[in-house]
Amino acid sequence: MSSEAARKFEFLANQCVEAGASFSVALSGGSTPRRLYELLATPDVHLPWARIHVFQVDERCVPPDHPESNYRMLREALLNRVPIPQANVHRMAAERPDREEAAREYAAELARVLGPKHGGWPRLDLIFLGMGADGHTASLFPASPALDERRLAVRVAFSKMLNSHRLTLTLPVLNSAAETIFLVSGADKAEILREVLRRPPPPDPLPAQLIEPANGQLSWYVDRAAAGRL
Ligand code: 6PG
Fold first, then answer.
1. 130 lines ligand 1 (CB under 6 A)
2. What pTM value is reported for the model?
């Protein structure tokens, strides 16, 4: 699963850069994508890092060196190991006391680098999403008011279950990307994967079912264990 995802990233980034553009990607946290990030830093994968902009899908409200920080995972697995210019790394400063301000600044950063290209929303070239066993994706949790966000590109979200605040990209941005890839692994995700892929979706969809790119490609990369109930 991870090496297929690495190949796809390599293909898309090189295609974009060879056509003269730079390439933007938003990366999720959690444990699933770590292997992918490690692979992206190996010499087998050829990426034009000087032309790649890395954004975060979401971040826990902790300092960047905290064990739960998504940025810390990203840095350790990938960013510290590749020649990406620091100016191309766009970290969500979710540790700031004023979270609303941090969300506004991240939205401004997205707009500055990517421009409002897609119906007024920034259009990322690629987004990697994960999915929780409760059907959440990014930091959009079931029944969260953040799911109704149609105005802001980035907002503060709260998970009751985890009792934690996060910053997250919102649905309008997530659904404006050119390519979106869900990475799902492990037997503990098998049941929710079956539910999320069921068609037609229920009247009260889970957050992962609300990922429906308006003008982009959506793919699911899953391992054998997660696919066990399909
Ligand atoms: C995070 C995420 C989140 C994650 C899922 C799956 O900060 O936790 O970005 O949306 O992708 O919770 O997490 P696992 O890969 O750890 O199962």
1. yes
2. 0.97
